[in-house]
Write a structure and sequence with these properties.
heterodimer, A: about 300 residues, five-stranded parallel β-sheet, four-stranded parallel β-sheet, 10 helices, about 15% strand, B: mainly beta, four-stranded antiparallel β-sheet, about 40% strand
């Protein structure tokens, strides 16, 4: 399998084998970090962040440092030539003279694919509006694999805002490739888009939709929580009425499976109270740490430093 | 007595078997309002094949591939007749291309194609009913939901 010069834009561009290859590469790097600590020596990563990010940008930069490479870029479009009106296409053409790989976050949907078409340097999508965030999906899958020793056939719940949450959409599609049974738990206003549910069911994936986590939590191997934002509700009273149904508490964990693990892309607000951090089921901080080996693997694969 | 509803043309294109009411849209996308030769638009004509049809006859005009693609979106399975010296020299069905470039606008206001000067591109994911997916923002548009560029 050859990832050299490949753009990482959408999880929809990945086959199951592609995903397995990335996860296995990340595992190799994580197990033997010294062996890979100089494979990007002499290579430069450009991080182009047109909107704020903490975890994605810093974990990419950390990943590049740990592979022995260097970093250039901006974390605020206001201080770059974008403010002077430079087009995305011109920025990409210019950056390709300076860097071997580009990571980009941009507020507009589809911007990463367009950017990748404007440059010969591989582009990794660090989030394009509400559309895709493929490296988050890959690290979510890596986390599930590490915590459960497998992905295939697991029962995975997705909880919270499934309508607007791009991480939930991409993860559902990817878990579908591994034949997982999926439980979509959300208020009716924030249901998983019909298009995604229909596509999964068409592929023979078992999908169960419900509105209360307590009805299904005991069946799950992993639960992926997302934040419900007040502004998504037309009626603030409706938000107040439903919000507690999507906040975990210790009592809900009484009957969960032994191997049960809670994941969250972070930042969390109140959907996972800190009391849960101490339980053996909390796995979201390890999940954030998993961003490093996954991003190391992707940087190394698309630059040809790793086969 | 059968009388001819539309005069035959000597040189040009006849688009037949257009679904009823779609002929105006076909005329619009081909910019026929600015066409200086004869244009005939027939609506709700009786048809042996599809019971009711629309048809458009355009004198002195041959269609480009891009225009044929546009017709394929609005009127899949329309019959295109190329007329020269009063005779049909070529007859074929309009076809939906696999990719639709620079023809349809994306409905997603946050799509990069609605925010930067760049062309649109859609991939057909289902023919009946017609569903196409934006190459950039990955949103799907369904039957009749699309606006032309």
């Amino acid at each position: 399998m050859n990832f050299n010069r490949r753009n990482i834009i959408s999880i929809n561009d990945f086959s199951k084998n592609d995903i397995i290859h990335v996860l296995e590469s990340a595992m190799k790097i994580e197990k033997n970090p010294k062996k890979y600590s100089n494979i990007m020596n002499g290579k430069i990563l450009a991080t182009l962040f047109y909107e704020p990010s903490t975890r994605t940008r810093l974990s990419f930069e950390s990943a590049m440092c740990r592979l022995g490479g260097s970093i250039i870029g901006f974390a605020d479009a206001d201080i770059s030539s974008v403010k002077k009106g430079e087009s995305l296409s011109d920025t990409m053409k210019m950056i390709e003279c300076y860097a071997d790989v580009i990571v980009m976050r941009h507020p507009k949907d589809g911007s990463s694919r367009l950017a990748a078409e404007c440059t010969k340097v591989p582009v990794i999508n660090g989030g394009d509006g509400a559309n895709q965030h493929p490296t988050q999906t890959l690290l979510d899958l890596y986390t599930i694999k590490k915590s459960q020793k497998k992905i295939s056939g697991l029962k995975v719940g997705l909880l919270g805002d499934l309508k607007y949450g791009r991480t939930a959409h991409s993860l559902a599609i990817a878990l579908g490739m591994f034949g997982c049974k999926l439980y979509f738990v959300s208020p009716p206003e924030l249901k998983m888009p019909e298009e995604i549910t229909r596509a999964l069911m068409k592929k023979g994936i078992e999908v169960e939709e419900c509105t209360r986590i307590r009805d299904v939590i005991s069946e799950l191997d992993s639960l992926y929580c997302t934040r419900i934002q007040k502004e998504r509700f037309g009626d603030p009273q409706e938000y107040e009425r439903v919000k507690s149904s999507y906040i975990l508490n210790k009592n809900l964990l009484n009957n969960v499976k032994k191997n049960f693990k809670i994941l969250h892309p972070l930042p969390r607000v109140n959907e996972i109270p800190t009391e849960i951090d101490e339980t053996p089921y909390a796995y979201y901080f390890q999940q954030a740490a998993n961003g490093i080996p996954i991003r190391q693997a992707l940087l190394a694969l698309v630059t040809g430093a790793l086969r | 007595m059968r009388y001819k509803k539309i005069n035959p043309i000597y040189d040009g294109t006849v688009i037949d078997h257009i679904p009823p009411t779609k002929s105006i849209q076909v005329a619009q996308i081909l910019g026929l309002i600015n066409h200086t030769s004869e244009v005939t638009i027939g609506m709700n004509l009786s048809s042996k094949k599809i019971k009711i049809k629309d048809a458009v006859k355009i004198e002195n005009r041959h269609l480009s591939e891009r225009e044929l693609n546009k017709i394929g979106i609005i009127a899949p399975n329309a019959t295109i007749n190329i007329i020269k010296h009063g005779k049909v020299i070529k007859k074929f069905k309009s076809k939906l291309p696999l990719n639709i470039e620079r023809i349809v606008k994306c409905k997603n206001p946050n799509c990069i194609t609605n925010n930067l000067e760049t062309h649109t591109l859609f991939h057909i994911t289902n023919k009946i009913p017609l569903v196409m997916k934006c190459h950039y923002c990955e949103r799907s548009l369904e039957n009749d939901e699309f606006d032309l560029v």
